[in-house]
Amino acid sequence: MTNTAHFAAVDSLADWEAGHLLAELRTGRFTGTPFDVVTVGETSAPITTMGGVRVLPDITLSELDPAASALLILPGAEEWDAGGGAAFAEAARRFLAAGVPVAAICGATAGLARAGLLDERRHTSAAAEYLAYTGYAGGERYVDARAVVDQNLITAGPQSPVQFARATLAHLELAPEAKLDAYEALFDRGDASAFPALMAA
């Protein structure tokens, strides 16, 4: 497996949603396996995140090759809710067809729903009603959970960035369950007693 993760630089992306996952992948501080994080834009033009951070994509979608990646990360963004992001959804389709995991959170799940990629996979999002507005055919496979993994697709809602990170790290087999339990306890529930367990696991 290549230690490269690709992150979709979608205009207006929600900074916090993939923040935990990006930090753990890039540093490898709790996994011992640092990744190169490569930002991918629809074009080479800079985008601005919801928080006002300017991001200059490393590569464009035309250069994105699933064979050179271990993971495609799709953050939520206002663009998805405006009906955009189709090019990134098609990239996700290519990744899944190639057997490469895709991690999508919040608005990105709506984009994947519109593309039909959730019709045959168990998934979650902000709420079942949120995805229902897309008119997709996968409503019966919606799971009311913080994060869901099925057929190389990891999904989560905007309230679950820590669970999104945990589920993705687990799917990539980068950390044992004991360490992931401590990670979630510390960063989601603020359980300071989990820190020694996290460092010792």
Task: Show the helix and strand layout.
Blueprint: E1 4-8, H1 19-27, E2 36-41, E3 47-48, E4 54-55, E5 59-60, E6 71-74, H2 78-81, H3 86-97, E7 102-105, H4 107-114, H5 128-132, E8 147-150, E9 153-156, H6 161-171, H7 177-187, H8 194-200
Parallel strand pairs: 1-2, 1-6, 2-5, 6-7, 7-9
Antiparallel strand pairs: 3-4, 8-9
Oligomer: single chain
Instruction: Give the DSSP E fraction (strand runs of 2 or more residues).
Output: 15-25%
Calculate the mean pLDDT score and round it. 96
CATH C-level category: Alpha Beta
* H/E element sequence: EHEEEEEHHEHHEEHHH
Largest sheet: spatial strand order: 5-2-1-6-7-9-8
Shape: globular
Radius of gyration: 16 Å
Major sheet attributes: 7 strands, mixed
* Number of individual domains: 1
Give the termini distance in whole angstroms: 23 Å
Q: Got a strand count?
A: 9
Number of helices: 8
Can you describe what's shown?
With 201 residues, the chain is an alpha/beta fold. The protein has one domain (4-175): 3-Layer(aba) Sandwich (Rossmann fold), CATH 3.40.50. Helices cover 33% and strands 16% of the residues. A hairpin with a 5-residue loop joins strand 3 and strand 4 (54-55). Helix 1 (19-27) runs parallel beside helix 6 (161-171), helix 6 packs antiparallel against helix 7 (177-187) and helix 7 (177-187) packs antiparallel against helix 8 (194-200). The longest helix has 12 residues, at 86-97. The radius of gyration is 16 Å and the shape is globular. It comes from Solirubrobacter deserti. InterPro entries: Class_I_gatase-like, DJ-1/PfpI, Prot/Nucl_acid_deglycase. This is DJ-1/PfpI family protein.
